[in-house]
Amino acid sequence: MSRPILYSSIRSPHCLKVALFLQEKGIVFDRVEIDLPARQQKSPAYLRINPFGLVPAYTDDYGPHADSLLIMHYLEWRHPQPRLFPAAETDWPDALNWIERSSGPFRDVSHHLYWQIIEPPTSGTDWDRVAALKTEGIMLLDTLEAHLAHRQFMFGEFGVVDIALIPWVHGYRRFDLISAERHPHTAAWIERVSTRPSFQNNYQIKGRFFSGDTA
C-alpha cells in the first residue's frame, strides 16, 4: 500500500481543513505543495489528478479525490476511527448546515475583508463595503456564540464541523471581529481548537487566499 498524498497549498483554508482532518485521524501522508500564484494547479500533470484544477486533492490506493468536504467524507468512511462526523444521526442536518455556512458566508466575509484591507484593490479600500462586511461577520459570530454557549465543541467531541469552521473564524481575529465581551464562548472555542497539535502543525499565517482555485 502506497502512502497517501495531499496536494495542497499553505495559502488555502480548504487545504488546512483536510490536513487537520488527516492528522486528527492519525493518517500518515505525504504532502505536495501546489504553487497557486504560479498556476501549478492548472498544469497538465496536476489536471490529471484533479481535472477541475483546484486544491486540495488527495490520492490513495482508491484513486484521486477532490473537494475538501468530499475528501473528509471519504476519509470518515475509509478510516472510521476516531469518529469525526457526528455520532448522532439527528445532529447530521444541523452539522451539514454549519459546514455549508463555513464555506459560504463565513468564508465570504473573511475572503472579501482580506482583499479590501490586507491587499486592497488599485482603486483603494471601499470602507463602506468593509463596514458592511464587518457587520455581517459579527452577526455570523453571534450565531456561533449562541451555538457554543453550552458546548466545548460544535457537536459533542471535536469533529468535522470544528475543522470546517476554524480556518475562517480564526482569521476573523485579524479584522478585530471577535470581542471577548460579546463572544466569550467563541473566543474560548478558538483557543481550544487552535492549541490542538493538528492545528499547531498545519496553520500558516503567511500567504493569502486564492479561493477561486480552492474548494
Describe this structure in words.
The protein is an alpha+beta fold and 215 residues long. The chain has two domains: 5-81, Glutaredoxin (3-Layer(aba) Sandwich), CATH 3.40.30; 89-197, Glutathione S-transferase Yfyf (Class Pi), Chain A, domain 2, CATH 1.20.1050. Helices cover 49% and strands 7% of the residues. The protein contains eight helices and four strands; from the N terminus they run E-H-E-H-E-E-H-H-H-H-H-H. The chain has helices at residues 13-25, 44-47, 68-78, 92-118, 127-148, 160-171, 184-194, 197-202; strands at 5-8, 30-33, 57-60, 63-66. The chain has a four-stranded mixed beta sheet with strand order 2-1-3-4, covered by helices on one side. Strand 1, helix 1 (13-25) and strand 2 (30-33) form a beta-alpha-beta unit. Helix 1 runs antiparallel to helix 6. The protein is globular, with a radius of gyration of 17 Å.
Provide the CATH topology of the largest domain.
Glutathione S-transferase Yfyf (Class Pi), Chain A, domain 2
Count of separate DSSP helical elements = 8
Kindly report the average pLDDT value.
91
Cα-atom Rg, whole angstroms? 17 Å
**Overall spatial form:** globular
Named at the architecture level, the CATH assignment of the largest domain is Up-down Bundle
Query: Largest beta sheet: what is the strand line-up?
Result: 2-1-3-4
Q: Distance between the terminal alpha carbons, to the nearest Å? A: 27 Å
Helices and strands, in order, run as EHEHEEHHHHHH
The number of strands is: 4
